[in-house]
Structures are given as C-alpha cells and as structure tokens.
Amino acid sequence: MGEGAAIAGLGMTELGRVYGRSARRLAADAVRRAAADAGLGPADLDGLVVSHGLGGSPGIELADTLGLRDLRVLTQMNAFGATAGAMIAYAAMSVTSGAATTVACVFADAPLRPERSSGAAYERSAREWHGYGGMTAALGFRSVNALYALAARRHMARYGTTSEQFGAIAVSTRQWATMNPLAQMRDPITLADHQNSRWVAEPLHLLDCCLVSNGAIAVVVTSADRARDLARPPVHIWGWGQGHPGHRRERGSEFGLTTGAAVSGPIAMKMAGVTVSDIDVCELYDCYTYTVLVSLEDYGFCAKGEGGAFVESGALGPGGALPTNTGGGQLSGYYMWGMTPLSEAVVQARGDGGERQVAKNDVILVSGNGGILDHHSTLILSPHRKGA
Amino acid sequence: MEIGILRRDGRTDPFFDGAAEDRLVIRRCEPCDHWYAPDQSGCPSCGGDELVWAQASGEATLVTWTVLHGRPAADGTVPPPAVLGLVELAEGPWLNARLDGVDAAALREGLALRASFVHPAEGEPYLLFRPV
Predict the structure, then answer these.
(1) A20-A24-A27 Cα angle (round to 5)
(2) Which candidate in A115, A214, B25, B74 could, as Cys together with A110 as Cys, close a disulfide (CB 3.0–4.6 Å)?
(3) Nearest to B66 among A136, A202, A253 (CB)
(4) Which candidate in A285, A290, A299, A334 is catalytic?
C-alpha cells in the first residue's frame, strides 16, 4: 500500500426536490465543487469514476462535459447501492499504484419530477404487461419496496424482530437529522409516529423507507501524501471490501437473513487492521430501517438475530455507544445511493459535523448495499494515517 | 382483482400454454435435475444453457410474505392491498407469488399452498397461490 490513499475533497449539490438541472449537470457541478473543496481545479484531476444510476445518470461522457483532458483513469462502475464503496476502492488502488494521482468519484441521479410523487419515481406501471415477468409485475411486484418487505418479514419470522425495533432505527436516525441542515426531513419523530405512519408494504411503514432525491455528490481521492498539502484535512482510506452473496432464489437460500456485509466487513476491517470493537461511528446504507439492522448483525456488532435488541438499546442515536447514520442517512437526510453514508463519513472524519459531530471519530465504517441485498461494500475511514 | 391486460412475450409462452390448461409449467435443467422459475435463462448449477419447460406439481410452501398497500389517491381513496409472497415450489425454486384467499394475519413460514390459475375474458391467464 505504501503511503496510502485519502479523500481530499467533498462536493455536494443541492439535494432533494431540485429541478431544472439534468443528472449530468448535477454530476459536473458536484465534481467541480469536490475539486474546489480540495483546493484544486478540474484540470488537476487525472481520473474520473462515474457511478451508474437509474434516472438518466451520466456515463463517461461526463469527462467531456467537464472539459477534462488527458485522463489516466476514466470509467463507469455499477454495483448498484454498493457502487460508492467500489468506486472509492478503485480510486484508492489507482492512486496508490501510480495509475493516476487525483481521481474524482461521482454519483448523480434525478428521478424526481415536479408533478410526480417520490414513490412513483422508481416504480413500474403499465396497462398492458408482457410475459411471465410482466405477470408478476401486474400482480404487484413493481418496486423494490415489496422485495425488501419480503426480506424484512423473513427476518422477523425467523428471529422475532419487531416493527417497533425497526422504528427505533427510524427514530434515532431522525434525531441525527434534526441537527443536519442538509437533511430533507428534520422534524423529530416518535416511535408512535413510526407505528402510525401508513403502510407501504407490511412490515414496512412509510417511516421505514428512504427518501428519493435529485442531486449529486462527488469526492476526490488522492495519495495520503498529496492530500496532506491540500486545502482540507485528509480522510484516510484504511480498508475496503465487497461481498456479493449471489442468493439463489430456491430452497435453502439465506435471502433476508444475511447480507454481503458478512463478507465485505471482515475483508475491509482486516485490511484496515481493526476489529469491530474499534469502530467508533457507522454510516450504513439505509434504504430501509431493516437494512441497517441486518447489516449491524452481519458486521458483528451483535449476534445474528439480536439486531432488534441492539438497536432498541439506544446505541445508534446521539449519545449512544455506536453513533450510526449521524447525518440522518437515506431515511431522513438525502438519498444519493452509497454517497449518502460516504459523504457523512467525510463530514464526521473532518470534524465538520457541528451540532451533530461525534466526540470520537477515529475509525468510521461506511457501508453500501445494492440490489435486493445482492451487493455490499464496506469502507473503513479515519482522520488519521493508517498505522500512525 | 384488476391487474390490467396480460400478453405473451415470445420467451415465456410455454408458461401461458400450461396456465391455459391449469398446469404450472416452469424451467428445468435435465442434466442436473434442477428446477427454476419460468423467467430463468441458463442453469447456474451446472452452467448449462438448455433449460426445458416441464410441469411442476403446483405444490408449494410459503417462505415469506408482505401486504402491499397502494398509495392513496388525491381523493383519499386507497386501492385494495395485495398479499405477495415468496413461495417455494415442491421442486425447489422460489417464485414471486400473489396470494389469494388467505388471511394475512394467519400467514406463517411453511404454510402449504397450491398453484391456481385465473382466466380473464381478455388477455393471458395468470397464476395465484391459494391455501391447500
């Protein structure tokens, strides 16, 4: 690894119901902001990694939009919600191997339209349906909500996890969001609010589900040595890992019970030279409250099946033993796929969290989760140089 | 149950041929005797790409379930909820299934179900799972 890699810049556009800019323009804005944050101009970038998205997200033509020339690294990556972690790992490998010196990684999406509800943004609808797949869609399998509900219900049936325990995650995440000016949902909620929120797909209430946002977030990755001389404190990349369980849809499948975090977590922590007891802060992919709960189990913060009791203990909220999703996550903050947890990790590592800044930020775990629990990525970040 | 109109796609037609005769026809890899959902292409167990269409027993058990609620309309009316499940066929594969004739509060892992077909006046038939 040599000197290691670090995140030197963070760029975020306005997030949420932001209209009038295409995903490509949002992406370009985020890259420019990330470079400026690091004290660099776009011309200083020699690498660009673009995340796949769903709402007309840009590809590698973004380099042309930005006027970038003579890049040494340029690619689009896709592991769905695990992409951000995979992009950062690729960028870190690029700068530590010498393939490039300064690599921007960006996610942008603009699925929201002014006249449509958030829920409609990622849902299929039609009057005529075609083939077997069309039949299952016609019968109700039209969005990921139902599929995550099936996973969550399986966890409940197997381990006795309750809706109130999912609600504890919604409440603690909102507590953090009240202290984040960028969060879309900042009014405090109670467990009763969670229980009374309308059903989306049982056992998931509305307050178990993430937001939908337009916007873009980018980070700049460079060598730890170079990052030291740039404008902002480096956020060192200590370790990374991926896990793609390849759940078969057949007898014996662990679908809903375990995720790729069980594989990506140990890989990333071993690379970082830490164990689960060293983690001070978690920024976890929270497309649903359930996703947080099952990820915590798979990372080993508690035993399998005990995630419900763990989150109910108050560990995740302000003042808790394991501050988690300290910016409000995707549930209450903003939904930028894996860039949501990553951006908040950068904020906390730099000590920029203001009212919500955690006291101890030495080791931060960041997760990504994609598909229907099909893809997982983990990053271990720190304000300190690895091994220093 | 209002689901819109269902048409064939040229790729999964044997499923609808079977459905027209109230038979559940799915995919099977003969060399390794592995069964799959009707939209499977290729056998991830042996790498073979020659799946055949074969009649399954229609017997199944419930793996997990959800009650899907529609979004309230502007006038406050809410479409009727749908009970969806993952069902495990006796032959092993899981299907995304719409359940019918069930009491959502009484659903449990392992509940015995059987394939059943609806034949609308227009369009192709569709598959439901009902308690045995």
Answers:
(1) 100
(2) A214
(3) A202
(4) A285
> Strand, coil or helix: what is A154?
helix
Look at B71 and A117 and tell me if their CB atoms are within 8 Å.
yes
Residue A335 annotated in active site: yes
Tens-digit pLDDT profile for residues A164-186: 999 999 999 999 999 999 999 99
Contact status, residue A72 vs residue A95, Cβ threshold 8 Å: no
Interval A71-90: pLDDT, tens: 999 999 999 999 999 999 99
Q: How far is B91 from chain A (nearest CA, A)?
A: 9
CA–CA separation, A103 and A226 (whole Å): 12
| Cβ–Cβ below 8 Å for B64 and A146 | no
Predicted complex ipTM: 0.97
pLDDT tens across B17-38, in order? 999 999 999 999 999 999 999 9
Computed on alpha carbons and rounded to an integer, the radius of gyration of chain B in Å comes to: 16
In chain A, % of residues over pLDDT 70:
97
> Which residues in chain A are closer than 8 Å to B8, comparing Cβ atoms?
130-131
B82 touches chain A (CB under 8 A): yes
**Crossing angle of helices A289-299 and A144-159, rounded to 10°:** 50
A334 phi-psi bin (left φ>0, alpha ψ -120 to 50, beta other): beta
For residues B116 and A29, give the distance between their C-alpha atoms in angstroms, rounded to a whole number. Answer: 54
∠ CA(A58), CA(A343), CA(A81), 5° rounding?
55
Question: Which tens digit of pLDDT belongs to each residue from A188-231?
Answer: 999 999 999 999 999 999 999 999 999 999 999 999 999 999 99
d(CA A240, CA A279): 14
Residue A110 has pLDDT above 50, yes or no: yes
- Measured in degrees and rounded to the nearest 5, phi and psi for residue A377 equal -135, 150
Q: How far apart are CA A174 and CA B128, in angstroms?
A: 39
CA A310 to chain centroid, in Å, comes to 21
C-alpha A126/C-alpha A115 separation (Å) is 18
